[in-house]
Amino acid sequence: MIKKFTYLTLLTTIIFLGISCEETITLTKPSVTAQIEPNGGAVKFTWTAVEGAQGYHVYRDTVKISISGLTYTETIPAKVIKITAYKGNTESEAYIYDCTPVITDNVEVYFMSDPNPAHPSGFGFKANGQAQAFSVTTNANDVDYTVEDRYERTTKFFSPNAYTPAINPKKNMTNDPSISQNFDNLNMALAPGSYITQREIAVDGVYALFMDRDNDGWDTSSDYFAKVWVKNIDQANLKVTLKCAFQPRSGLRWLVTK
To answer: Are the beta carbons of 231 and 257 closer than 8 angstroms?
Structure first.
């Protein structure tokens, strides 16, 4: 009877210790390096092995992908990528790569022909990604695009360096929307090569923007992408109303807004 009691006690202790060990597993957050691919349409993630990990979960927004390796390249645009280490049901703290575009709605920009010097005829994106209308005379260096209507009886987005003399040295371009689409449906800007510095715009057009602000050609270290919906063109009051989304990560063409 004593032997049986001792055996049951020992077995219970072993089971208890086993459960305790399982519950106290801790995994460190993966140390991840993110590198935007040369074409700007994908991000490569690499990390060092986490001690005790069985594998790794990659979350593309709400989609979970489980992998065993130490590298992953995401080609589908997203707002947020998260990477965790896991073992069984235990999961580490997540590494977070946030690439959510900064949205600014109802930006009013006046035509270059507007006679009131106090009215801003340009717009640009601030350091925090917010779009803002700027005067081309008092805030020339902040202008990324103008709304030009003085030529060919059309309204266009103009690059600041398309003028003589230039408003500023930035060579910022606009892509032609090949099909009519909803603002939220444009999830990735086209790669550089199909953009021009003077693009005619129309009401309800959704345009991808490629900003080569240092005018040194395409690179992922200093160039930026955005999209703009032309909500209204008010010919009577010489202004347009825009909705903008700016990708704050240089070189990344992802523009997911829903």
So the answer is: no
